[in-house]
Amino acid sequence: MNKLSNLIFAVLIMAAVPSCFNSDNGKSAMLPNVMGSTGELIVVIDNLKWDGKVGDKIREVFVSPVEGLPQAEPIFDLVIVTPGKFGEYYITHRNVIMVHTGADREQKVVFQTNKYSSTQLIITLEGKNDDEIIELLEKQKKAIVEKINITERDRWISYYRHSINSMNFNILREKHKITLHVPSNYAMDVNEKGFVWFAYETPVTTQAVLIHYFDYNGENYFSEDSIRSIRNNMTREKVKGPADGTWMKIEDQLPVEYSTFRFRERNWAMLRGLWTLENGFMGGPFVTLVTRDEVNNRFVMLDGFVYAPNDEKRELLRQVEAILYTVSFDIDPEEKASK
Q1: Digits of tens for pLDDT over the chain (339 positions)?
Q2: 83 to each of 50, 129, 157, how far by Cα in Å?
Q3: CA-to-CA distance for 173 and 326, rounded, in angstroms?
Q4: CB-based contacts of 156, cutoff 8 Å, min separation 6
Q5: d(CA 282, CA 309)
Q6: DSSP string of 62-84, one letter each residue
Q7: d(CA 101, CA 246)
């Protein structure tokens, strides 16, 4: 799948996301759907600022290479728009950053959702002058990038909730006691006790989700070294290459990103990096989430990986990662409310 077809696919799919993304007393249901491609960011700024030090800082924050990809890709694809053009052509775009300065402005960043379109995110940077905007970006860059990425992820999650393969969904719930919203274009390639493999294949790309679980015995499986070992053991046994004696493993010549976080009232650990094929020549990005499922007293690993040797991988990995974040191990609040 080439870059253009990926872009068209993302635009068409996300335009179909229902307007129930956020609960805002019904306001979003009355709004048009967002426009633009996933990972695209409109920057509303005058030409003088864009050509100066504010523009340099914006490029530093939002166009730096994404960590954990084999080739350099920017964090976001920027589209620069002057204030006069924003209302004419771009007002319903999915992700917008606006830059405002003035003597009466307080230095702050403001997040708004569902202003001109459903699921839209508008981030306003305010300050008395350019130096305050630059300082604000330096202080808040991590929070701003994270907010945009989570918003993009949640848009995909909203879509996935309405595009599942019912048979596979029910197999996961009944046989494996896991709820996961895997899109209908993914095939269930392996369905074994303790291991499930979903994949979406095109002639030139692969997006895959692996589920691995085993009884929890009280050991600390949540350190970086433990997750790396468990994943490598799983893929050595289950994810073979096209030739004999080849299998997937984490690329150990490059650093991985490790973090812990809370999600849906549960502790998680994450590993993000590159995989390679032992004794082979394939590779790509992956993201692994692990948690303890207290309901069923087990360790659960959710893994998403991409193989796309001739394509950009940022958005392919974003799509796979969003699937992982649809997980639950009992009936979630939305499903309870609907019963």
Answers
A1: 344 344 444 444 444 444 444 445 556 668 999 999 999 999 999 999 999 999 999 999 999 999 989 999 999 999 999 999 998 889 999 999 999 999 999 999 999 999 999 999 999 999 999 999 999 999 999 999 999 999 999 999 999 999 999 999 999 999 999 999 999 999 999 999 999 999 999 999 999 999 999 999 988 899 999 999 999 999 999 999 999 999 999 999 999 999 999 998 899 999 999 999 999 899 999 999 999 999 899 999 999 999 999 999 999 999 999 999 999 987 544 444 444
A2: 12, 17, 32
A3: 13
A4: 14, 38, 318, 319, 322, 323
A5: 8
A6: HSSBPTT-SS--BSSEEEEE-HH
A7: 57
DSSP E strands: which ranges in the chain? 40-44, 77-81, 95-101, 108-113, 121-127, 187-192, 195-201, 206-215, 247-250, 257-263, 266-278, 283-293, 298-307
Reduced DSSP (H G I as helix, E B as strand, rest coil) percent helix, strand, coil of the chain, to 5: 35, 30, 35
Specify whether the CB–CB gap between 28 and 119 falls below 8 A: yes
Collapsing DSSP to helix, strand or coil, 103 comes out as coil
Instruction: Enumerate residues 6+ apart whose C-beta is below 8 A from 137.
Output: 57, 58, 61, 125, 144
